[in-house]
Design a protein that fits this description.
binds nicotinamide-adenine-dinucleotide; binds uridine-5'-diphosphate-4-deoxy-4-fluoro-alpha-D-galactose; globular; alpha/beta
């Protein structure tokens, strides 16, 4: 059985679906601080399979110990975490406390119960700003520009150190680039609370009429059209990467390995606007605003290592990402609040 922490969230719910389809048994632990159990109800509906759900905080060692005692867990995917970059600047202690303690508690409870395999949600944000593109796993990390980034950087260090101390432990660190899109059924997707921080959910809400226009954060970058370039990856591809990581962890030598999970291709803000207009048949009005502090001009992944070692290659293109994001948004204009 696989324990999926944060499994009710955006990436977690899509991964639970893939795990169930892949024949794994799943138990989700989530404190629902940024999600609804409705996502898991819909995962069950799509797959016709059941999963276990425990409402608990991953920082609560007693509760986690009970989960490990009750279920026969042989691997963990650790999604649980706070993820809003701007909020992390306002509430650094909450971010360090939640994101680091959850990793520490998990490692302690895994050790107590003899569980040896973990996949961790890291982020491209751990890379320093002074690398050249594409980013590969050897590129410089650190010098993060916000507390959220530091929590991912520090969690990586914690997992590496734990693997050195316990040579029977296997940890797979996945550095995600920009996850977007939704399951093609339109039943599960991204449901941000309040004003979305990220581009694709913001664009979706403009297209559906919830917001008037998009503000493009700067059009004077050194990129083809002057707007920021990122490596957007369909959440379906990203979810599948977790299955590749789980099966890799079942076969590999113990230790800590890190992989970029992206497409290797960059798209600009205006590319996204155009692709979304095409997919939705709606206009996405936008205004050019100033740059957002901390943003880089261009970020995209080197994907060779994931391809060679995990056997992972993305399948979805930008058009499909926008089509599925729109399908979800138009069928669920208020997200899981229906
Ligand atoms: P999400 O907010 O939708 O999912 C995270 C889930 O974790 C939520 O369901 C939340 O309720 C839960 N959670 C948070 N703290 C918890 C705790 N202490 N105990 C139990 N549950 C807790 O976010 P997501 O986009 O699905 O991201 C999943 C993971 O991937 C996060 O760790 C995030 O930092 C990382 N990540 C996300 C992105 C992105 O752009 N979405 C990029 C890189 C990395
Ligand atoms: N952007 C806009 N307007 C908006 C929102 C975003 O123009 O309203 C632009 C940004 O300036 C950037 C691009 O759209 O050029 C993408 O921005 P996002 O906020 O969607 O994504 P980021 O690349 O800034 O960061 C995201 C996550 C981080 C994660 C990182 C991984 O928010 O948590 O991807 O690469 F670490």
């Amino acid at each position: 059985m696989i324990l999926v922490t944060g499994g009710a969230g955006f990436i977690g719910s899509h991964t639970c679906l893939k795990l169930l389809e892949g024949g794994y048994e799943v138990v989700v632990v989530d404190n629902l601080s940024n999600s609804h159990t409705e996502s898991l109800e819909r995962v069950k509906k799509i797959t016709g399979k059941d999963l276990a759900f425990v409402k608990a905080d991953c920082c609560d060692e007693k509760a986690m110990d009970e989960v490990f005692s009750k279920y026969n867990i042989d691997g963990v995917i650790h999604f649980a975490g706070l993820k809003a970059v701007g909020e992390s600047v306002q509430k650094p202690l909450e971010y360090f406390s939640n994101n680091l303690n959850s990793s520490l508690v998990l490692l302690r409870v895994m050790k107590a119960h003899g569980v040896k395999r973990l996949v961790f949600s890291s982020s491209a944000t751990v890379y320093s700003a002074d690398n050249t593109m594409p980013l590969n796993e050897e590129c410089k990390t650190g010098n993060c520009t916000n507390p959220y980034g530091w929590t991912k950087y520090m969690s990586e260090q914690i997992f590496r150190a734990a693997c050195v101390a316990d040579p029977s432990l296997t940890v797979v660190l996945l550095r995600y680039f920009n996850p977007v899109g939704a399951h093609p059924s339109g039943l599960i997707g991204e449901d941000p609370k309040g004003i979305p921080n990220n581009l694709m959910p913001y664009v979706s809400q403009v297209a559906v009429g919830k917001r008037e226009y998009l503000t493009v954060f700067g059009d004077d970058y050194d990129t083809e059209d002057g707007t920021g370039v990122r490596d957007y990856i369909h959440v379906e591809d990203l979810a599948r990467a977790h299955l590749c990581a789980v099966s890799y962890s079942e076969k590999s030598e113990p230790g800590c390995e890190v992989f970029n999970i992206g497409t290797g291709k960059g798209s600009s803000v205006l590319d996204i606007v155009k692709a979304f207009e095409k997919a939705s048949g709606r206009k996405v009005p936008y205004k050019i605003g100033p740059r957002r502090a901390g943003d880089l001009a261009t970020v995209y992944a080197g994907t060779e290592k994931a391809e060679k070692v995990l056997g992972f290659k993305t399948e979805y293109n930008l058009e499909q990402m926008c089509r599925d994001a729109w399908n979800w948004q138009s069928k669920n204009p208020d997200g899981y609040n229906k």
